[in-house]
Design a protein that fits this description.
Blueprint: H1 2-13, E1 17-18, E2 23-26, E3 34-36, E4 41-43, H2 44-57, E5 67-71, H3 75-86, E6 96-100, H4 105-111, E7 118-120, H5 140-148, E8 152-155, H6 161-166, E9 171-178, E10 180-182, H7 184-189, H8 195-198, E11 202-208, E12 215-219, E13 230-235, E14 249-250, H9 254-270
Parallel strand pairs: 2-8, 5-6, 5-7, 7-8
Antiparallel strand pairs: 1-14, 2-13, 3-4, 9-11, 10-12, 12-13
Helix pairs in contact: 1-9, 2-3
Length: 271
């Protein structure tokens, strides 16, 4: 019997699994409150850069295409997103960036996700050239599947209509205040970023009902806003429909391998 149990453990241990991808959801419009020098992003654009760098280095980002897709941004929103990428470590480590027009959304979500590692959404109507979150609602299940397959996501305050369609337990509250404070998790996630960088302009959404999702930045208690509310949240793993829950997702063939293992148990028992 002891030998039988050892055989089962080795067989199941050989079955591989993967975690869902990382995501950062922000109630900010950092793309409207930043700038750049020839070599350095400043304020909100630095936050965007650090968010991309965090996602790119996350162990749960198992999509290895090394491409960031900027979803629909034009004008100022696109300028900020491109600066965040071009001045990040991604630009010098083999990553590429592409801009997907809103007119190409249907085709992209149907055929382009397999060659994309990180989706990047702007702050919607809060920035020139932004894309309203309502334009992503039709693709909510595609976004969820993308994360479930090990892709990454960075989004700002675009209204989050697509998020509420996927995750009713998380409430996105519209508000406006200035002043954010990084949590311990936020300081670890965004090295070199300061509270001042995040507080260059107002934020527009905060999240409630977040459960176990790590909170990366909260409203600064020194201002007139709702003290301590979660304005930036994120997790290194877990489907967007089960945030912060890094449940293992069986890779293709897992159930078949498990079936083979159990068949071996049955045959050994017969002997």
């Amino acid at each position: 019997m002891k030998k039988l149990l050892t055989t089962v453990a080795l067989s199941i241990g050989a079955v591989s699994s993967a975690f869902a991808g990382p995501y950062i959801l922000a109630g900010t419009d950092a793309d409207d409150h930043g700038s750049a020098t020839a070599t350095t992003n400043v304020d909100g654009w630095l936050f965007m850069q650090r968010a991309l760098e965090n996602l790119a280095q996350a162990p749960s980002l198992t999509n290895t295409s090394k491409n960031v897709a900027i979803l629909g941004s034009t004008g100022s929103a696109q300028t900020a997103a491109l600066s965040a990428f071009n001045k990040s470590s991604l630009a010098t480590s083999g990553w590429t960036v592409s801009v997907i027009s809103t007119g190409d959304f249907a085709n992209f979500f149907a055929t382009g996700l397999g060659t994309t590692s990180i989706l990047m959404m702007d702050s919607g109507n809060n920035v020139g050239g932004g894309v309203s979150g309502s334009q992503f609602t039709a693709y909510a299940t595609d976004i969820d599947s993308f994360l479930g397959a090990g892709g990454g996501l960075f989004s700002q305050a675009n209204g989050y209509q697509w998020l509420s369609a996927l995750l009713p337990s998380v409430n996105v509250v519209g508000s406006s205040s200035t002043g954010l404070e990084l949590t311990a998790a936020g300081n670890a996630a965004f090295p070199g970023l300061t509270n001042s960088d995040l507080s260059a302009g107002p934020w527009h959404n905060y999240f409630t009902g977040t459960g176990s999702i790590p909170v990366l930045a909260v409203d600064d208690a020194d201002n007139s806003g709702p003290d301590g509310v979660a304005v930036i949240i994120g997790a290194a793993g877990g489907s967007i429909t089960e945030p912060g829950d890094p449940n293992q997702i069986p890779e293709p063939g897992t159930l078949a391998l498990l079936g083979i293992a159990m068949a071996g148990v049955f045959l050994r028992r017969r002997r």
